[in-house]
């Protein structure tokens, strides 16, 4: 397994830059890098014409000045919308910026309902051809993760889950996972099980430093945070 996959940064800025900038924006990546954050996470889904863009929700109302479903809007339409003063970024935009800033990235595949497999395959192919591989691909969707791994088996994968499922060991083997990304409330038993299996564990979403330190003491590799600015560069 290539070293960059294993080197989870301790503090991963949630949705590009957490509360430091607009969600899933290039400005968020810049803000995270500016405070000394080494790792970022962002969400990717497909536009109507099949282009991977950064967006968390299936509709654009919460994070842009537009209306409608991401899956019904073309890239041209999405890029006319305003996300904190910039157009909706594409995955390519984010990868280029991460490379320029030296950021490790967790690319979360966030498919629209019914587009799980196609989103995984498109994102996987793009990452296989354009990404420097410094990071990990994750998803709550087994179908999306399977499709991505089917076209990009050399990349690193982690499963997202609120709690660790009872069949987590079989899932780990099936998808060749390097880790699990779990809710911060998943519990010490689950976290210890993953750690003892030699896998990485990252917990979301943790904004209080005391809570984060308790998780690190339990062997958690990393946390996702909306407040990466609460940590000094040497702690990240």
Task: List key phrases describing it.
TIM Barrel; 9 helices; 19% strand; alpha/beta
Q: What's the short story on this structure?
A:
By secondary structure, the protein is α/β, with parallel strands linked by helices. It is 33% helix and 19% strand. It has a single domain, classed as TIM Barrel.
Description of the molecule:
This protein is α/β, with parallel strands linked by helices. It has a single domain, classed as Alpha-Beta Barrel (TIM Barrel). Helices cover 33% and strands 19% of the residues. The protein is built from nine helices and nine strands. The chain has helices at residues 3-6, 26-34, 75-78, 91-101, 116-130, 142-151, 168-175, 188-196, 209-217, and strands at residues 11-13, 39-46, 52-54, 104-109, 135-139, 157-161, 179-183, 200-204, 222-225. An eight-stranded parallel β-barrel has the order 1-2-4-5-6-7-8-9, surrounded by six helices. Helix 5 (116-130) links the parallel strand 4 (104-109) and strand 5. The protein is globular and about 45 Å long. The two termini are 23 Å apart. The relative contact order is 0.16. Residues 1-5 have low confidence and may be disordered.
